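ok posting inputs for the beta-D-ribofuranose job
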Amino acid sequence: MRRVVIDTDAGVDDSIAIVYASRLPDATIELITTVSGNVPVSEVTQNVLYLKKILRLDAPVFSGAEAPRSRKLITAPEVHGKDGVGGYRKSKGISFPAWRTGGAAAAIVMAARKFGKKLTIISLGPMTNIAKAVSLDPAAVKGVGGIIQMGGAFSGYGNTTVFTEFNIFVDPEAASYVLKNGVKVTFVPLDLTETLFLPRNIVASLLVKAGVNWPELVPLLRKALNHYIDYHRHADKLDGCFMHDPITVAAAVHPEWFRFTGSSVSIETKGKHTAGMTVADFRKGAVLGNSRIAVSFDALTFLGDLTGKVFGARIGRSAAGQSCLRRRFTADFRNNLR
Ligand code: BDR
Ligand code: CA
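and the output
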């Protein structure tokens, strides 16, 4: 049994990742911590508390950083909605007294001390809380079984600026701090997560099937996913959406579905056009250093498991499954002629 901490900026795909993680028989969620990213941490925490309620999760929730330590917070309401779930929570007037505010980083440290190698930290947002946890007790954080970070773009373009992925772009100093302090991180980057998407028509049919089973969850997923897909249609000309964070949960709990490479990763913090860029040295003979990068995965096995657990309707190696695979737009300009 793998014990996991989820640090999240939920977020539409984060919310699906939490649902998925809660239904994985091989994982126990010991703690959920929240961080500003997709939306401010106050909204993120509300989303997590609502998920905790409807999924009947035991895990304690601690809220964390309101903003990066050394730069202004950037959020993405256009992608996830102002409340982070496509406007669903606001439209229903759902809110909780935000207890246990603060303390996310300390809670991560406590979990690291308690579970050591048995613990995997799954980081689905900017690394602000993780960096703070490292500053509080580097040995404890280094002593966990693994830290898996959704983030980075190594061989292709970013989703925020030309070369940056959102989570790292929001707080590059935090990511850099973690790596520079000798903490090994496994990155699940856009290069991998954007090779799979859920088309709108498939999402619609999954929601119809799921509706019978989970009357509280499905309206939330419907509104959140529709908003998220509308964004992708507008911004990426893609009538569907990416599952960045659920894939990251899978990389933590089912690493056997993934191929990883060792690498040295540095984070650009200063560049006018490149701050937030993840730079990995893949040259022959390069030192295999502080990180691992997930480079490919068995997307259809993941898809079958995700759809079965989150929607109660498996899409596997069928034609529908195949229609979810895509080639990613890469930095090789010869493939991108217009
Ligand atoms: C990451 O940023 C957020 O928009 C998603 O939740 C995901 O964690 C993708 O770049
Ligand atoms: Ca996220």
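notes: The chain has two domains: 2-195+243-297, 198-239+299-336. Residues 217-236 form the longest helix (20 residues).
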